[in-house]
Design goal:
This protein is an alpha+beta fold. The protein has helices at 4-8, 49-54, 57-73, 86-100, 104-107, 156-181, 188-192, 263-268, 325-333, 341-344, and strands spanning 46-48, 76-80, 119-123, 137-144, 200-207, 219-222, 228-233, 239-243, 246-249, 257-261, 278-280, 288-295, 302-303, 323-324. It has one domain (20-344): Sandwich (Jelly Rolls). The strands form 3 sheets. The protein has an 8-stranded mixed β-sheet. Strands 6-11-8-9 form a 4-stranded antiparallel β-sheet, with no helix packed on it. A two-stranded antiparallel sheet has the order 13-14. It holds the Pfam family DIOX_N.
């Protein structure tokens, strides 16, 4: 199928192909997401990572508490003072733009075939399963435990490798704090997910301007299948999260990352930390780019509720079945991207 970028670049484009049109009365319009939510982005918790790493014991304890509250109340938070160089973040954004500007035949070398292919390029999410396509092109790369990168643009590999190294270290610190916020040892999540061999998926998403944004969708309401997602954007609005049954616009502050809880952390925390529904809207003025790193357990890790958080005698039974992460990914690939439909298959108590 044609890429969204090639469609958006068509001269004098005034309407979108029918295959990209969603019904105007679908779930995207069931909750107001504009005037009633002015200022909502100010409510997203902000975590100062430098205080978690180098703060006094009191400062660190405060940040651990804030992390737990953010994961439990929102499932989303922003991280500042994270140690990833601002220039590196800008370089990565630039190189992703350069990739999407390659000729179509160059990008098609990486056209999606299987969820475990090391480099995948495509449009929408799963065209074989979808009645209408999403206004989005993507590049997905397996960057850990084995590192991959496209050969073009030539700078891509070096920049991506440096970026991944920095973000992995930041993620390690976050997971230590989140483990402690659950009352577990700081190393618990790292060991339980085999973080040294963890599967990390890099995903660059391109949402070009859309002449009929009211008819198109960037991505539908969904949760992420991983442990944590680390998101970098080009500051163009479009991300919305569901909080207390209302859609909130999330606009990151400069030089920050947006972090969200994924399905695997919801399972491991036995439901205490929820993988929150979120979606991407498109606009008719500017190209939005989001770059996510989905940090998951290793392929072979069987994920289930942490034994320390389960106790039948205190009315805290296991809420989820256990499943191998590789199997979870393959189920996702063969399904539609729709809310928490995959995670719901493994719930023991509804």
């Amino acid at each position: 199928m044609a890429s969204v970028k090639s469609i958006a670049d068509s001269p004098n484009l005034t309407s979108i192909p029918s295959s990209f049109i969603f019904a105007t009365d679908d779930s995207f319009d069931d909750v107001a997401a504009d005037a009633s939510l002015q200022g909502a982005e100010d409510s997203i918790p902000i975590i100062d990572l430098s205080l978690l790493i180098n703060g006094t014991p009191q400062q660190r304890a405060k940040v651990v508490n804030e992390l737990g509250k953010a994961c439990e109340d929102w499932g989303f938070f922003m991280v500042v003072n994270h140690g990833v160089e601002e220039k590196l973040m800008k370089d990565l954004m630039e190189i992703c733009v350069e990739f999407f500007e390659l000729k179509e035949e160059e990008k098609r070398e990486y056209e999606t075939k299987h969820v475990l292919d090391p480099i995948r390029y495509g449009t929408s999410f799963n065209p074989k399963m979808e009645k209408a396509f999403f206004w989005r092109d993507y590049l997905k790369i397996m960057v850990h435990p084995k590192f991959h990168a496209p050969t073009k643009p030539t700078r891509f590999r070096g920049i991506l490798e440096e970026y991944c190294t920095s973000v992995r270290e930041m993620t390690r610190e976050l997971l230590r704090g989140i483990s402690e916020s659950l009352g577990l040892e700081g190393c618990f999540l790292e060991k339980a997910t085999d973080l040294e061999s963890s599967l990390i998926l890099f995903a660059a998403n391109l949402y070009p301007p859309c002449p009929q944004p009211e008819l198109a969708r960037g991505l539908p309401s969904h949760s992420d299948l991983c442990l944590l997602t680390i998101l970098l954007t080009n500051q163009i609005a479009g991300l919305q999260i569901l909080h207390h049954d209302k859609w909130f616009n999330v606009n990151p502050i400069p030089n920050s990352f947006i972090i969200n809880v994924g399905d695997q952390l919801e399972i491991l925390s036995n439901g205490k930390y929820e993988s929150v529904l979120h979606r991407a809207k498109v606009n008719d003025k500017a190209t939005r780019i989001s770059i996510g790193m989905a940090v998951g357990p290793s392929h072979e890790t069987v994920v289930g509720p942490a034994p320390q958080l389960v106790n039948e005698d205190t009315n805290n039974p296991p809420m989820f079945k256990s499943i191998k992460y590789k199997d979870y990914m393959e189920i996702m690939q063969s399904s539609q991207l729709q809310e928490k439909s995959i995670l719901d298959r493994f719930r023991l108590h509804l």
